[in-house]
Amino acid sequence: MTRTAVVTGGTGGIGFHVAKQLQQKGFAVTVVGRDPGRGADAVAAIGGDSRFLRADLSSLDEVRALGVRLAAEGPLHLLVNNVGGMWSTRWETADGIEASFALNHLSPTVLTDALLGVLKAGAPSRIIEVSSSSIAAVDGVPAYDDVEQDGEYYGMAVTGRAKLAHLAYTLDRAEDLRGSGISVLVVDPLGSAAAATPNGMAMTPEILPPAFRGLWDEIQQSLRPAAAGAGPIVAAATDPALDSATGVVLGPDAAPSEDLLRFVTPEISASVRTLTRRILAD
Ligand SMILES: NC(=O)c1ccc[n+]([C@@H]2O[C@H](COP(=O)([O-])OP(=O)(O)OC[C@H]3O[C@@H](n4cnc5c(N)ncnc54)[C@H](OP(=O)(O)O)[C@@H]3O)[C@@H](O)[C@H]2O)c1
């Protein structure tokens, strides 16, 4: 039976290379993005059994609609929650939610919830969450009593806080799903490096706190190709050595890493759970 995979943000950036490599490994791949033209180009380049589905994953209604559509199609073997990012200036989604929190945490949470039934039907199956080392840029221990914390907006710290929320939530999910046949893995694809993806190329020095903006040229010169981030994500998705692994974070070398786990505390996990349930119940 052909194994099926969904890659969010699979028409460009890191996700495109993930989707292409998964197709080469025999998956029937669905890539999700906003733009039909970029979707058609991506499917032509991925080849094989691939298709594009359009959804703006910053809109929770569109995420839910995508989930309903995919859930009606039967067993799913792999969900790669890749969409996410970091922005230089604060913006809100159509739902009125700060975008980093929406795209890095709420959107993959809602999509995963919608697809749990088909992932169970496809077991053994995997959920891969794409995280980032921006978590290490969060100043102090973040609170999660609301979507946003007081203070000035710096994309790096705001994204780090959202990625940390999603990591904490994902580790809980991995425990909930233990023994279900669905394994849940998190990947920090680039460690302290960054890649020249559409999102990466749109950033400006304002993502950094003022004291670090002098490093901008150096950061720009060290950008890696988008494909560099795909390797550990594809390994997490396919490596048979990880068949029994769940609730594990893999670093850029695709090996288990404690680097991001040390930021998760029981208090953070509990407050993220409460906040997430509150927002999604509204
Ligand atoms: N780039 C880095 O240096 C880096 C480092 C560490 C971790 N990461 C993580 O890796 C993941 C991918 O990063 P990336 O830099 O490749 O991102 P990216 O440049 O934004 O990825 C582009 C892909 O995402 C789609 N996309 C963007 N916004 C979307 C939306 N609202 N709804 C649906 N699709 C959307 C794009 O298609 P459309 O534009 O057509 O929608 C395209 O397919 C993210 O989770 C990011 O946090 C990235």
UniProtKB/TrEMBL annotation:
Pfam families assigned: adh_short (PF00106)
InterPro entries with a match to the protein in the record = SDR_fam
Assigned keywords, A-Z:
Oxidoreductase
Which PANTHER family did the record assign?
Answer: PHOSPHATIDYLINOSITOL-GLYCAN BIOSYNTHESIS CLASS F PROTEIN, PHOSPHATIDYLINOSITOL-GLYCAN BIOSYNTHESIS CLASS F PROTEIN-RELATED
Protein name as it appears in the record:
SDR family NAD(P)-dependent oxidoreductase
Species name: Nocardia iowensis
